[in-house]
């Protein structure tokens, strides 16, 4: 479990196909000391995707990514030198600075525009089909592992405002219109939608029984 507060920017150092070439092993370099206390098997959120540490060095760790994850996220576009957002898993007693993030990517969104707006920039994204009902104005959303507040939403798009600090301390600042990002919807929205689905099914059964 994570909070969407990025604590480091990692750099892709190596990529090697595994699993008959369908899966991928990736080596990720981190800032000095960032991996202190991390153990083999730990979970790290890598640009929004929860991945398991399989090897460790001083300032480098390796993960293995399945073909499923490569096809459903932006991880399949990684190359040597790509900079990614990193967050270590939440521990009991840690500050909840963002919102509850699982690291399970729901889809990939396209960056439509980045426009100056007072002291920040308004970023507008096109959502993949089926996710717009989970995104609400002033709700939370995770973009490439970063917890953000939705400032506008319609049937196909949503907008957020990024202050300079956010673009400086995350890899979002390197993105441009036309780029693609991993999206995770708010967990609360997911369960509310599921509850409403079962309520609707219950109403149908009661109607049929009557």
TrEMBL record:
Q: Which residues cross the membrane?
A: none
Note the segments forming the Lumazine-binding repeats.
1-99, 100-196
Its source organism is Muricoccus nepalensis
State the Gene Ontology terms under molecular function. Answer: riboflavin synthase activity
Protein name as annotated: Riboflavin synthase
- Listed pathway(s): Cofactor biosynthesis; riboflavin biosynthesis; riboflavin from 2-hydroxy-3-oxobutyl phosphate and 5-amino-6-(D-ribitylamino)uracil: step 2/2
Question: What PANTHER family would the database entry show?
Answer: RIBOFLAVIN SYNTHASE, RIBOFLAVIN SYNTHASE ALPHA CHAIN
Specify the domain of life of the species encoding this protein: Bacteria
């Amino acid at each position: 479990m994570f909070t969407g507060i990025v604590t480091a920017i990692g750099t892709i150092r190596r990529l090697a196909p595994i699993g008959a070439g369908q899966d991928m092993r990736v080596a990720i370099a981190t800032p000095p000391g960032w991996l202190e206390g991390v153990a083999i098997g730990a979970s790290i959120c890598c640009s929004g995707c929860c991945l398991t540490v399989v090897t460790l060095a001083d300032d480098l760790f390796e993960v293995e990514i399945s073909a499923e994850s490569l096809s459903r996220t932006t991880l399949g576009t990684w190359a040597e030198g790509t900079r990614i957002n990193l967050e270590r898993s939440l521990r009991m007693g840690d500050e909840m600075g963002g919102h509850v993030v699982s690291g399970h990517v729901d889809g990939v969104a396209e960056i439509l525009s980045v426009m100056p707006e007072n002291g920040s920039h308004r970023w507008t994204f096109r959502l993949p089909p089926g996710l717009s009902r989970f995104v609400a104005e002033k709700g939370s959303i995770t973009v490439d592992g970063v917890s953000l507040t939705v400032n506008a939403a319609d049937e196909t798009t949503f907008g957020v405002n990024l202050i300079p600090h956010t673009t400086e301390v995350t890899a979002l600042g390197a993105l441009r219109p036309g780029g693609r990002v991993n999206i995770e919807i708010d967990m609360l929205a997911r369960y509310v939608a599921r509850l409403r689905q079962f309520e609707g099914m219950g109403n149908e059964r009661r109607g049929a029984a009557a």
